[in-house]
Q: What sequence folds into this?
């Protein structure tokens, strides 16, 4: 880490979801739109700005609805952003997620030719994430949005996906989610791990120094790049029945079944981390936001992974102070994911054919060094964790030949023939501008 003083953040220019976790319970919708006429696209941005709260005025849980807005590279082109400005964006953003699928491990069933239309196509220009306290408020907002879009003929809505967070904050796999949020210097917003030093703002937001004391590359003019961030959006279909079947077939008892599932994830269903609760789930710990993320790996006596396996999902995606801690801070992301589709009832082992899963969103200043590195080096590969032949057992692109090692004494336990439990149904790389940048884009005259 550098010893540079914290740089105050321009909170009034940063979209609220970058720094503020969402309410515990909400109804939401992700809307994708195509811009056919650049002037109408700019009019859409002008209308949306009033619904986008800043980090200095975060959305109140009782507010009827609010939104965040991001644009793909093709969307910026469709708005008429000049070519010399477009050239300032990183290559991975310009290429888009579909073009980089092979590098990301999105092959087989997760390959772009199997993605849900129009995901991965050049038609995805604008991503709008609308949230409301309940389904009724959300529907009223969406009805108003549809009316507004009918008045803007040069913008076409092309995809809608409802999303939500249950009161218990659990995903379709049955585990509590959204627990770990980093503290960011200058934000005034505490993180969820008091054992973790705050991160330099430049790891997530353009225009500020990062952990190395450097300013990440930023598109010009400054008004466009400053206070913006890059968003990764992925629709991840979860094969819950297959996951339950696999765990049950490898477990000796119901208690062993629950333990195996926790070893895959690194946490118990309640959210209690294995490092702090290695033997059994502790619901009070899992429900306590002051304790359920207050841990490290090595410092809390688990350098060898005897409590939380070295290859567990939570440890791969956030190694904390593991042996690779010298670089872990340079690859941290802000995660903002939610659920879609109906939950499979508890203890049901047969697939009911419903589409369910996770809408994965993460925010960062450098796509290649953050999301792409974590996906390719930590999720798809185990070299950094001392298990080079293993992938993430939960989210890795396993093909039925995968394996997962659980360190234990006197003899380690190894699970084999891991199938794929998460399939990517499509996604895109987007840029979430600051509020001044949204106004700049809306006022373009090209």
A:
């Amino acid at each position: 880490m550098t010893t540079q003083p914290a740089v105050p953040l321009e909170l009034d220019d940063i979209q609220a979801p970058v720094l503020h976790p969402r309410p515990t319970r909400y109804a939401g919708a992700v809307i994708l739109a195509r811009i056919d006429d650049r002037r109408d696209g700019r009019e859409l941005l002008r209308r949306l700005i009033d619904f986008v709260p800043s980090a200095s005025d975060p959305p109140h849980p009782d507010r009827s609805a609010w939104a965040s807005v991001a644009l793909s590279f093709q969307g910026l082109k469709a708005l008429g952003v000049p070519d010399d400005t477009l050239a300032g964006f990183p290559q991975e953003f310009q290429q888009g997620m579909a073009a980089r699928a092979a590098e990301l491990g999105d092959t087989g069933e997760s390959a772009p030719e199997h993605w849900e239309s129009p995901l991965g196509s050049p038609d995805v220009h604008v991503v709008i994430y609308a949230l409301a306290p309940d389904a009724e408020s959300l529907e009223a907002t969406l009805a108003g949005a549809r009316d507004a879009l009918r008045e803007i003929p040069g913008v076409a809505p092309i995809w809608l996906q409802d999303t939500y967070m249950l009161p218990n904050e659990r995903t379709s796999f049955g585990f509590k989610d959204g627990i770990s949020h980093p503290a960011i210097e200058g934000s005034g917003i505490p993180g969820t791990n008091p054992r973790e030093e705050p991160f330099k703002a430049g790891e997530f937001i353009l225009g500020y120094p990062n952990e190395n004391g450097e300013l990440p590359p930023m598109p010009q003019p400054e008004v466009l790049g400053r206070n913006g961030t890059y968003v990764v959006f992925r629709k991840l279909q979860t094969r819950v029945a297959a996951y339950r079947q696999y765990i049950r077939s490898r477990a000796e008892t119901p208690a062993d079944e629950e333990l195996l599932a926790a070893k895959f994830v690194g946490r118990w269903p309640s959210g209690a981390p294995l490092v702090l609760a290695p033997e059994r789930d502790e619901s009070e710990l899992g429900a306590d936001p002051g304790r359920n993320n207050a841990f490290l790996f090595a410092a809390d006596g688990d350098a060898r992974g005897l409590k939380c396996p070295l290859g567990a999902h939570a440890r791969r995606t956030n190694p904390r102070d593991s042996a690779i801690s010298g670089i872990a801070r340079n690859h941290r992301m802000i995660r903002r994911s939610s659920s879609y589709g109906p939950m499979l009832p508890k203890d049901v082992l047969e697939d009911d054919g419903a589409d369910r899963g996770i809408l994965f969103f993460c925010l960062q200043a450098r796509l290649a060094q953050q999301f792409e590195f974590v996906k390719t080096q930590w999720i798809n590969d185990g070299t950094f964790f001392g298990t080079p032949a293993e992938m993430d057992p939960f989210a890795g692109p396993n093909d039925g030949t995968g394996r997962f090692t659980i360190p234990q004494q006197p003899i380690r336990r190894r699970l084999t023939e891991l199938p794929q439990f998460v399939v990517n149904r499509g996604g895109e790389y987007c840029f979430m501008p600051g509020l001044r940048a949204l106004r700049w884009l809306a006022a373009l005259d090209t």
